[in-house]
What does this fold into?
Amino acid sequence: MSRDSAATETGGPDERDSLMRVLGGRASAVDASVPPVAFGAVWAFSDGSIAAAGIAAVGVGAVIGAWRLTRGARPLAVLLSLLAVTVGALIALRTGQAADFYLIRLVSNAASGLAWMTSIAVRWPLLGLVVGTVLGQRTTWRRDPELLRAYSRASWVWVGQYLTRLVVFVPLWAANAVFALSAAQVVLTWPLVALCVATSWWVLRRTLPADHPGIRHVRESG
It folds into this structure.
């Protein structure tokens, strides 16, 4: 089997779309970017009122949450998104620093990056868990050394995503650059996730040997 034919079986648009939905689709991007934009905009046009900006962000988050519920989103996911916005607003109010609204996002990205790195180190790469769930394989892919290696390498792309956000966000947060943080949140949400999905898929396909039957087929060792 040629590498091209193996790559074709390795993943088509349906699997990439499924991966995009699970790891952060358009709905998640709206949750992550619109409330921070609302916070930054209201803060800028209200002479730096953290209270007004926080109310705006929470209000926008609640509207988005209600809209997502009508479209069949999981209530827990909606609640967690709204909770993150609310906690961010409360932190900013408590500290008196508007940039601290984004502090919870810094922490979540650091924690996510650490979780992905740990999963690779213990040979349970999160990308494999996600794709295995999408394909209905559960954890049988771990019995295939080639799939395990491919998922591990591709998972590093996701580590890079979180590190990229931290490299951008941390200096802006330290400089109290509220509006710049809002803009960065937009750029580093949906566009970055889309790039990450495409790149990790490419790494996955390139890592598998040419004679491998593809991610839908587990080839056990021995």
Notes: Residues 3-207 form one domain.
